[in-house]
Amino acid sequence: MFKDGPEYQERLVRPFVPPPITLKQLHDAVPKHLLLKDPLRSTGYVLRDVFFCVLFFAFGASIERLVAGSFGGLIPLSQPWQFALARTTLWLMYWWWQGIAFASFFCIAHELGHGTLYHSRWVNDILGFVLDTFVLAPYFAWKVSHNAHHKAINSIERDENYVPHLRSHYNLPRKERASTADYAEVLEETPLYTMIRLFVMQAMGWWLYLTCNKLGSKMYPKGTNHFSPYSALFKKEQRMSIVISDIGLIGMMSLLYVFARSYGWKALVMYYVVPYMFELMITFLHHSDPTIPHYRKEAWSFLRGAAATVDRPTLGWIGRFFFHNVAHDHVAHHFFSHVPFYNQPAITEAIKGVLGEHYNYDSTNTFYALYRSFTECVFIEEEGSIVFYKNKYGIASRELAKGAVDMTKLAGRDQETQDDLSEPDSS
Q: Which of 44, 105, 144, 239 is the most exposed place for a label (fewest CB within 10 A)?
């Protein structure tokens, strides 16, 4: 269970060369009917997410009654420890499944932010705003920065989130002079401290990114955040939508406050806050992987950046069902972000043959992959047009093939050619 998947192991031993294909080859491989939206089907998925969230709330509201009544007499409870065990088990079940439901709201709002479910921008935005606001996500602000992320995916200079720290961030000596002791002095930590940091990232990383641009693009000034309409993230014409996002969050927090005053703060924590904390931040694993490259501007292209992500069977059927393929088909999503998520599995199959060995999949257990990426993806070097994460010992897990960039250019696949979607000139 806690070991590297065979696909990951294969990438480790294969020196990296940028994909020698073109964006047009990928687009030509995808049947055109997969690019179409089905508003009725989209509505079904939205209603399904709402149904399960309401269902789980109803389950949570029945827990105390079920325990007090010994599950209608089906499971006799007589000792205090039996009541405590039953109550704890049911609340853990509720927190897990409601956290999954909250994550489903975020995932389908992400699709609505891309405009993939309905032909009307108003319908996409209204539904996305309502669903994101319910889980305290600033819909319009996130929409702006996330769409910018898609345009500059895995560009060290221009990507919007999960931008790697540089060697200089840790004040490490240059790699030619750095010793094992240098790395140990700065980066060595106990396993317990590592787990604490991992927990903090999962529980608070989202809000640290929103409020102070933690692990966001380094091109923005200090104080950049997702809540100020005058933030460097936004253009002048986007400011009103940021205000609307803020008003939505204030409104939702006001409703939560009214709920707490009516039913008690404990009820708020049990029904909303704990499942909210359980909500999985699966986005970290999409682009943070020891075998996946990051590009500087002289080597970056849209195709190279979009291919530098990983498909993962996150939580198995649960992730497929509730997270709307966001992890299972993330490669296809980056190449075709305008396409509904329910068509992405077929698109994944269509582009696998074109990508060949450059299609990245990892069957590694999700939780182990999270720990592996968190501990192995520490920093990147200050120089190099294509770089890989290094760990706390200053070692990269994967090598760049000698002359990799030149080999791609010699094959007639420079950045401009790779991203060109126009038909070749037949004259």
A: 44
Q: What is the pLDDT of residues 18-69, one digit of tens each?
A: 998 999 999 999 999 999 999 999 999 999 999 999 999 999 999 999 988 8
Residue 137 burial (10 A CB sphere; 0-12, 13-18, 19+):
buried
329 vs 37, 96, 265, 351, 385, CA distance in Å? 17, 23, 39, 11, 27
Q: Whole-prediction pTM value?
A: 0.91
Reading the block at residue 298, the tokens are 């002289």
The residue with tokens 């939702």 is 252
The radius of gyration of the chain from alpha carbons, rounded to an integer in Å, stands at 23
Q: Which residues contact 363 (CB under 8 A, 6 or more apart)?
A: 5, 6, 7, 312, 313
Q: What is the pLDDT of residues 229-261, one digit of tens each?
A: 999 999 999 999 999 999 999 999 999 999 999
